[in-house]
Amino acid sequence: MRTTFKTKVTAAIAALMITLTGAAAMTPADAGDSSILGSVTLTADAADVISRDQAVKWANERAREAWSEDVDHSYGTQCVDLAMKYYRYLVGYNVGGNATDYQTNKLPKGWTRTRTPQPGDLIVWGGNTKINANCRLSKYGHIGIVVAVNSKKGTVTTVETRGGSGVAAHKYTREIKYATVFIRPSFGKETSVTTDTLVNFGTYIIYSADNDSVCVGATGTTNKSNVKCVKADKKNKLNQWKAVGNGNSWKFYNVSSGKVMDICTNNVANIKNTTNIHVYSSQTKKALSATQTFKPVITKVNGNVYYRFAVSGNTSFVLDCAGESASTSSNVRLYKAAGKTNNTQNFILRRIS
Q: Can you give the pLDDT at residue 288?
């Protein structure tokens, strides 16, 4: 139930992050263990796309798989780690603090606090309060996710880590009257983006799943400036990428220059291992534009959902950080798609706007 009070803003699709339609696409446990899952349908707004039913299914799957993860890398798996993971799933970032701090910490846009629970809400117990008639909590409080409400009995079914039945996620029945407050996310309807509609999907930092201290960045603002793995600095506009596209393909516009991520060839049929990536002015001619569009592909590794970017016109090749592991000396290039555990081809997208 305890964690350090440090805020870590991370966007995921997180989990996004790219946001995906369909519960199966959104939920790590639903993804199965195939090496690479198929391409996914994207949606226009990361903050509003996930429905209440999808969120509840996500929480139930965490209980089913007895999920346990030290999300903030402090004190092992605590109750707030599940809350942080849930935030990342819904909005692409999390807030820090102990469970009791969720009574007052800043909420994402459209989220509210309430005393009347609904499935999908977070349930918060303040520090030094009772979680039931026989148990008083420490000063750090406790937190979980509501997956069902029985108003007649005055109870909720929750998914919690560190809830009393061990460290891993389990389901519990809790009395509503002991809860301090419930946090209600802003849920939305899923609206698919058709293949002929261009949409701004948001601005992201693209972190390497192999080493999240590095991210994908442009080395300059002129045409043919190289794209490399660089020291992760989310404030550096050379490291910020605005994703614009349709339901199948994205272009990544560099925020600093307005130029797009581009493959160093005029024909996608000529791509080979180690073909380089740079930035270049956005093209409108079909043949050249094909060298600037990427298809998001989702992959699951040890319960974590990562993203790969295949060349839209030659999907056997994906973005890859050169070398045995990603570092600030790694070029970003194309390489034949390898197995799902090859994290130099897996990326974490964290939405910043």
A: 60
